[in-house]
Every structure is written in structure tokens, then in C-alpha cells.
């Protein structure tokens, strides 16, 4: 997004008469601002960046313009080049309501030099037990910590990685009758594992650590491992942005019982249904999510700044191929294998790998993640946090009319 901001002049010079005003915010802030704007019909923005959680819900409410028809009609856009799993996640009733800027799954990043020093070898497809053992082996506070796992409250922050751990442990948020399952043996084992790993071998100040904070710690060499979005690879493996890029390695999302535990997400440009500048907004969407834009970024800002994970052709570009040789295969494979319609081992009435696709999950996720953050900080036990979270999930399911 920051790179996009620097290329604002390229768009304006190639599209005379259109002025581009961009507002870039941290993840939790952008969610709050966009949700408020669109739910109140304020139309402060023509385009907003949202993801796979919001698109189907907001399209159903009539808040978004259907963009697929227009994009598909433009032969230069190459609509079919968009990765199918990414496209599917941004559809409602078979129609595309947001154009993906970049896509991601999740993976484990680690420092080869730090692990080697502790005589630890990391598998390409590790288990969470192997990761926990590795974290313990390299944990050496106060200057070096075993692993960074998001602790910052938020359904899209802390709960994104934690939900994938719950899934791979065989847990789930709700069963088929919408009865909360956070307190089930599988889910509670996963949650306790996550909390214990953060408390015993995780980063300092974990309740303030989101994606950005963990990424910074990884670049500074203060953590041996980090489990998070595959999109981080573009920065971590870039020598211009990470002095230790040559020591970086990446493995598949760790597993327990369920294989292919990586999440699926895309940050995408959606047009507000009551946008006042739809023709100009379409021009920007076409430009920012095109094959040409990927090339422009590669040439002007370096391949590490390229928005990856949205188009298949990105992975065939000679420059990007060379740059991304240590992580592109894992990224693309993980994105293609992630299935939001079957996120868990046991049947569930919802879709979404690292979220539950219901409107109430924003409030539910905030509340639950605050309970877990209190457990990270030692302010309450994991058992108490899980009970509160499970009780609130049941309350939300009843009030929302999901439980019959």
C-alpha cells in the first residue's frame, strides 16, 4: 500500500483529469473507518480496501458495486489471470464484488542462522509440536525470543493465526447447530497451546504485537520464527528492506491433525455502491490490479515491493521468479490449497478459514481476543478466558438467531 502511494503520480499522469487521494491506515483502523463509512452510506470514499470476510456480507446488503462484469469486458485486464481461489473468495452469488490487490495464505518464517546455532532443523511442512520445540531451543531473552505470534486483540489480528491453530487441532468455533465449541477439548487445547507458546517463548509485549510489530521484530533478528501472512515474504526476503534477507527461510503453515492449515485472504479494492466517481474509480481499479502495475512496481520499486498472490502471471515474470525463488512455491501452493468452505476437520455451518463469516464476528472477535490477551498478560487463566469466550460465542449465536 505504501508503494502504491509512491506511484500516485504515475496513475495521474497516465489518466489526466483524475486526481487520486489515498488514505493508508493500520489494519484495525482501516477496518473501523471503512465499516463506519459504508454502513452509514457516508460515501467518504469511492473505493475501499476490504477482504474476503466483508465482501459477501456487504454485497448481500447492497453496499458494493459489482465490478466483475466491467473488468471482464476489458480484454487488456486479463480477468482469468486472477488466481481462482482468490477470485472465488471475493464473490457473492457467483459475481465479483472486489478486485484483488494482493493475496495471501499463511506460513512459518524462520531465521536459518538462529536455528542452526541451536542445532535445530526445520521441516518444510512442520507440526506445531516441532515449532514449539524449536521456539524453546532458540528462546534466549532478553535479546532473542523463540517465536512471534500475534497477541494484539482483533478478529483480523490475534485471531487470524489463532483460528488456524484451532482448525488444525481439530477444533472449531461452532458445531452444525451453532453451539459454541471454543470450550471443546480440541479447541481449548489449541488455545492453551497458543497462549502457552506466547507466554513461554513468545515476543515481549505480546498484547501489543500485531502483524507490523512481529514483522519488525523479525527484521531486527529478535525472534527466531514468526507465523503469519505469506505476503510478508516479499519484504523479509528483500535485501533492501531486511539486512538479514539471506538468512530467511519459509515453511508451510504448521499442522497438528488437519493438513493444509494456511489461511486465505486478499486485500481488494471494492467500490461503494453510492460512489460519486464510478468511471474514475474503475480506471484506478484496472490500473492498480493489472499485470502492468506489477511490472511497474518491479521496475520502479524492486520485486520485493510487488503485490503478489493475486495473479498467476506474477509468478511467471523472470524478475519476480528470481527474486521469490525461496518462497514463491510455498506461497502459491498454500493459496491454491486453502479452502474457506471446508476450514475444519468436523462439519461447520460457516465459511472462512481464519474468521467466521457472520456480521457479528467483528464484535465477537474483539471481545474474545481481549479475553485471550488478558491470559497472555497473566491477568486471568487460560481456562477462564476460554469459558468467557465460549459463553459469549453462544450468546452471540442466540441473539443473532443462528441457534434454533
Characterization of the model:
By secondary structure, the protein is an alpha+beta fold. Helices cover 43% and strands 11% of the residues. It has helices spanning 2-6, 8-14, 27-39, 54-60, 68-73, 84-89, 112-117, 128-138, 159-168, 185-201, 211-219, 233-236, 278-288, 291-301, 318-323, 328-337, 361-376, 382-399; strands at 47-50, 91-92, 95-96, 99-104, 106-111, 145-148, 223-229, 248-252, 265-271. Strands 6-7-5-8 form a four-stranded mixed beta sheet, sandwiched between helices. Strand 2 (91-92) and strand 3 form a beta hairpin. It is globular, with a radius of gyration of 21 Å. It starts with a helix and ends in a 5-residue tail after the last helix. The model has no long low-confidence stretch (mean pLDDT 96).
Question: What's the quick description here?
Answer:
The protein has 404 residues and is an alpha+beta fold. The protein has helices at residues 2-6, 8-14, 27-39, 54-60, 68-73, 84-89, 112-117, 128-138, 159-168, 185-201, 211-219, 233-236, 278-288, 291-301, 318-323, 328-337, 361-376, 382-399; strands spanning 47-50, 91-92, 95-96, 99-104, 106-111, 145-148, 223-229, 248-252, 265-271.
Amino acid at each position: 500500500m505504501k508503494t502504491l502511494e509512491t506511484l500516485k503520480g504515475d496513475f495521474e499522469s497516465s489518466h489526466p483529469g483524475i486526481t487520486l487521494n489515498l488514505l493508508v491506515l493500520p489494519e484495525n483502523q482501516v477496518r473501523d473507518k471503512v465499516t463506519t463509512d459504508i454502513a452509514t452510506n457516508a460515501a467518504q470514499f469511492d473505493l475501499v480496501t476490504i477482504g474476503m470476510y466483508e465482501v459477501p456480507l456487504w454485497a448481500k446488503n447492497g453496499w458494493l458495486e459489482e465490478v466483475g462484469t466491467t473488468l471482464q469486458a476489458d480484454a487488456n485486464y486479463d480477468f482469468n489471470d486472477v488466481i481462482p481461489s482468490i477470485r472465488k473468495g471475493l464473490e457473492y452469488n457467483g459475481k465479483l464484488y472486489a478486485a484483488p490487490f494482493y493475496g495471501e495464505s499463511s506460513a512459518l518464517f524462520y531465521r536459518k542462522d538462529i536455528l542452526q546455532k541451536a542445532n535445530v532443523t526445520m521441516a518444510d511442512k512442520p507440526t506445531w509440536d516441532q515449532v514449539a520445540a524449536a521456539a524453546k531451543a532458540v528462546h534466549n531473552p532478553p535479546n532473542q525470543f523463540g517465536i512471534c505470534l500475534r497477541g494484539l486483540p482483533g478478529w483480523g489480528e490475534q485471531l487470524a493465526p489463532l483460528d488456524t491453530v484451532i482448525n488444525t487441532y481439530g477444533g472449531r468455533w461452532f458445531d452444525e447447530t451453532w453451539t459454541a465449541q471454543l470450550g471443546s477439548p480440541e479447541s481449548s487445547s489449541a488455545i492453551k497451546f497458543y497462549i502457552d507458546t506466547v507466554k513461554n517463548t513468545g515476543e515481549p509485549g505480546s498484547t501489543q504485537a500485531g502483524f507490523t510489530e512481529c514483522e519488525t521484530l523479525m527484521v531486527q533478528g529478535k525472534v527466531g520464527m514468526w507465523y503469519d501472512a505469506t505476503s510478508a515474504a516479499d519484504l523479509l526476503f528483500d535485501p533492501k528492506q531486511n539486512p538479514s534477507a539471506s538468512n530467511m527461510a519459509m515453511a508451510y503453515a504448521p499442522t497438528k491433525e488437519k493438513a493444509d492449515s494456511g489461511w486465505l485472504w486478499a486485500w481488494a479494492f471494492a467500490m461503494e455502491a453510492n460512489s460519486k466517481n464510478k468511471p474514475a474509480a474503475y480506471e484506478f481499479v484496472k490500473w492498480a490490479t493489472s499485470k502492468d502495475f506489477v511490472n511497474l512496481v518491479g521496475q520502479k520499486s524492486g520485486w520485493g515491493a510487488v503485490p503478489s498472490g493475486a495473479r498467476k502471471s506474477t509468478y511467471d515474470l523472470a524478475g519476480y521468479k528470481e527474486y521469490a525463488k525461496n518462497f514463491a512455491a510455498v506461497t502459491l501452493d498454500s493459496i491454491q490449497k486453502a479452502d474457506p468452505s471446508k476450514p475444519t476437520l468436523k462439519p461447520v455451518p460457516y465459511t472462512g478459514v481464519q474468521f467466521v463469516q457472520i456480521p457479528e464476528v467483528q464484535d465477537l472477535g474483539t471481545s474474545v481476543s481481549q479475553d485471550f490477551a488478558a491470559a497472555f498478560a497473566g491477568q486471568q487463566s487460560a481456562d477462564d478466558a476460554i469459558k468467557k469466550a465460549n459463553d459469549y460465542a453462544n450468546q452471540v449465536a442466540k441473539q443473532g438467531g443462528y441457534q434454533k
